[in-house]
Amino acid sequence: MAPRRRRSAGAFPKPVEPPATDTAESTELYAALDLGTNSCRMLIARPKGHQFHVVDSFSKAVQLGHGLEASGRLSRNSMNRTVQALQICRRKIDTHGVKRMRLVATEACRRAANSAEFMRQVRRETGLPLEIIKPEEEARLAVISCASLVNPRTEQLLVVDIGGGSTELVWIDLADVPPADRARAIMRMSGGFNPGGPVIEPAARVVDWISVSLGVATLKDQFADVEDDAARFALMSWYFEEKLADFSPYSAGSPREGFQIVGTSGTVTTVAACHLGLKRYDRNKVDGMTMSTAQIDAVIRGFLAMGPEGRRADPRIGRDRHSLIMSGAAILQALMRVWPTDRMSVADRGLREGLLYAQMAADGVLEELGPI
How far apart are CA 146 and CA 150, in angstroms? Predict the structure, then answer.
């Protein structure tokens, strides 16, 4: 499938506080749910100043897209497994009395021939208002969730969101925005890449964006018949790079100076945690850190040296991710090979955080962000 592509205010929450169970405060709660090809994840939070405070969370590998590459349909087992996870989310929403929510599904539901049937099942068995969003909105929400990680010296920004069924890349030109206002310029994109109405200057400019229908699950399925571990990894990385050939910044090139890549995905955070040697994942140590190309390559070489059995047994990778880590690493390595930088900023945030921000900003419940 050809990649989909399109040419081309205000406060921002920093979701860095640990989850808590205290719901005594009277501020209205918000929920955001991201149902992807591999995982179902939800956050429940309340606005707090210019940030938000996470009250409860949920994450489960449901493998909704299992077998989708071959059949073009969601399997009955995958749909039932996902509905069970969504029923847990429903109970959490009811327990906390959440009234404001945005619950979205992405690539697996966009592609499946029987997605309408699945959506009816979700509505019937959970009552949740799940909606399928377009690739542009998925990319935009990932971008605004990463705004606070933008370096004031960044003139050209690439935000990469590696999902289970697709990978979104957004290239943003910040050269005309004063350094002190660059993060805020990203935040102002909450209304869309090309919003209507008056243009707020100085503005971040989307040079190009692309949604490639290859994520950690779908890329893995493409090469499932290749037995050799190292050969499969090399083929996946080459194949993904090939899909980027028409992405305009790829063909035009960019100077190394003032360029920043921000990567948001389970792949990126897993690689970062392994680089740090964490025995137990710590978001506060991973989110916002920077990794060099050499450090990323060293971790990936370590994954290859382990082989499938070694990766399955490594607690740093986790049982939910061991079968997908090499396809994610192949995407990551291709990205770092293609673009003119030797560093990547790591973001443990993404669609859910973007959904929360967009809801809270629309309701005007966040305080204006001060200087960054």
Answer: 7
